[in-house]
Amino acid sequence: MSDLKALLERARGRAVLIVGDLMLDHFVIGRVDRISPEAPVPVVQFDHESYRLGGAANVANNVAALGGTVEIAGLVGNDAEGRRLMEDLRHAGISTGAVVADASRCTTRKLRVVTTRNQQVARIDYESDQAARPEAEMALVQKIREAAGRADVVLISDYQKGAVTHATAQAAIAGAKAKGVPSLVDPKVPHIDYYAGATLITPNHLEAEAVTLLRIRNAEGARAAAQRFRERAKTDSVLITRGEHGMWLLAPDGESDLPAEAREVSDVTGAGDTVIAAMALGLAAGGSLRDAARLANRAAGLAVARFGPVAISADDLRVAL
Question: pTM above 0.85?
Answer without folding.
Answer: yes
